[in-house]
Amino acid sequence: MNILVSITNKDGIVDFFKNAGEKHKIYASSGTCKFLKSNGIEAIDISSLTGFETLLDGRVKTLHPAIFSGILARKTQKDFDEMQKLNYPIFDLVICNLYDFAGNMDKSMDVMVENIDIGGVSLIRAAAKSWERVTVLTDIDDYSEVASKIGSGGEVPYDMRRKLAIKAFNLTSSYDRMIAGALSGDYPEKSNEDVITLKNQKRLRYGENPDQTGYIYEIPEFGKLEIFHGKEMSYNNYMDASSAIETALEFEEPFAVVIKHNTPCGAAIGKDHGEALEKAIDADRESAYGSVICLNGTIDGNVASRIKDLFVEVIIGKGFTEEARNILGKKKNLRMAVFAGNGPKNKIRTVFNGYLQQNVVPAAPDKLEAIFERNKFNERDLIFAWKIVAHCRSNAIVLAKDGATTGIGAGQTSRVQAAKIAVERAGSKARGSIMASDAYLPFSDNVDVAAEAGIGAIIQPGGSIRDQDVIEACKKSGISLYFTGKRVFLH
User: For residue 327, which of 90, 147, 271, 360 sits 20 to 30 Å off, Cα-Cα?
Assistant: First the structure.
């Protein structure tokens, strides 16, 4: 077997050749060749094929027909005869990894540029293109299996060569994307192309339903979610956890949110996280059963004691005290998780004919305009209600009072129906509450529902052609009205 080796990271390569047997002819780039020889492995410097050591201070080493024709030659007599006439070897295995561009991204532009691998990427792509005949090794984790195959006198199986080629193309793709991102920086020109690289795939038990497959690709640059106790997270758990964390990130004071089916069913602020959690659960204790809960701080014994008798799927915080771990650790299936980071700057979702992308913005409005005030409401309470409705599925209505939700109606096709559901969920707690609407009230019938329930104030974007009807209805009913000038739909 003819093997070509050109590697930056030399970890594992000595063991590879010790396990791969001795009946191989090894060609290596100069640095790799010296390393192999110093470790007792016979190798031939590729300069014997190319006719030069290196060019341009090492920028050109492998870029030569004697190298690439030996990789790209097809399994045809014509190609083999041509190679024999030129006295070029035909390579069966290419082992290559790339310059550590990632480790130099914080350096000067000159250093970054010098760490852009050209020859290595070309070798990998050529070998991957020829996967029907050539094995390409780019990952140290694959060394052992491949060495075992060829060391026992066999050949690398067809399916394995194909999988290694796919891995190689994924590597070069992500490598190029990393370089493009690093060189772009704050460059004002935005490309009309955007490439998303997903790796470290983790298969979940199933998707939203048992007959669907599900995966998660974790991206540390977005944020980290460490599950350190309990059952494996499901697809739906991750969805609910994300919604919970995104809501919690809106608040600086002690805050807790209870999520059910990807939308809040209770949320509150308090003097501490224990009080905030108790208020959030009390907002809709029935819906809190089987929920996902997130706090924007450390989960201590005070917090843990408040849910020790409640069935919760996931509890998330920025940390857990030892006391909390001991209390909640008795619930074997409860998933406990720690989060860090601020999440992605953009959100992407698939649609029938492509991807939709939009930036993420804070829910808080730039201004709060008092349109009519029968009674003046605290801005903190108004903004609390507004931030929660921004994280409920549209159409959404949230009722809140004293820093806690009292009723939520979400995911409705009719806004007035959402208002009726919120009022029904609140019951007697609706009286004196603030009503938040994620989009403008299109008709005054929403005000009628609010008035009958004793709502004290309404906060909404405004901007409807019937705003005046809504304003007059609020004045008639004695309901204070505030406009944010901002819609917060969440589909």
Answer: 271
Domain 369-483 has CATH 3.40.140.20: yes
pTM score above 0.90: no
Q: Where are the domains of the chain?
A: 2-184, 224-341, 369-483
User: Which strand (E) or helix (H) includes residue 148?
Assistant: helix 143-151
Q: Distance between CA 75 and CA 178 in Å, rounded?
A: 35
Q: What is the DSSP letter of 104?
A: G
**What is the residue type of 139?**
D
Active-site residue list: 129, 261
How far is it, in rounded angstroms, from Cα 176 to Cα 191? Answer: 14
- Which CB contacts under 8 angstroms, 24+ apart, belong to 462-468? 462/369, 462/371, 463/487, 464/440, 466/442, 467/440
Q: What is the pLDDT along the chain (491 residues), one digit of tens a residue?
A: 888 999 888 898 998 888 887 788 888 888 888 898 898 888 888 887 776 676 676 667 677 787 888 888 888 888 888 878 888 888 989 999 888 877 877 778 788 888 888 888 989 999 999 988 999 999 999 998 998 888 877 788 889 999 999 999 988 888 888 787 777 766 655 556 666 667 778 999 999 999 999 999 988 878 899 999 999 999 999 999 999 999 999 999 999 999 999 999 999 999 999 999 999 999 999 999 999 999 999 999 999 999 989 999 999 999 999 999 999 999 999 999 999 999 988 899 999 999 898 999 999 999 999 999 998 999 999 999 999 999 999 999 999 999 999 999 999 999 999 999 999 999 999 999 999 999 999 999 999 999 999 999 999 999 999 999 999 999 999 999 999 999 999 99
CA 189/CA 180 separation, integer angstroms: 12
For the CA atoms of 328, 330, 331, 333, the dihedral, rounded to the nearest 10 degrees, stands at 110
Pick the closest to residue 422 from 69, 433, 192 (CA basis).
433
Helix (H, G, I), strand (E, B) or coil at 371: strand
- Judged on CB neighbours under 10 Å (0-12, 13-18, 19+), 204 is middle
**What string of DSSP letters covers 413-436?**
S-HHHHHHHHHHHHGGGGTTPEEE
How many of the other CB atoms lie within 10 Å of CB of 369?
11
Supply the CATH classification number for the domain 224-341: 3.40.140.20
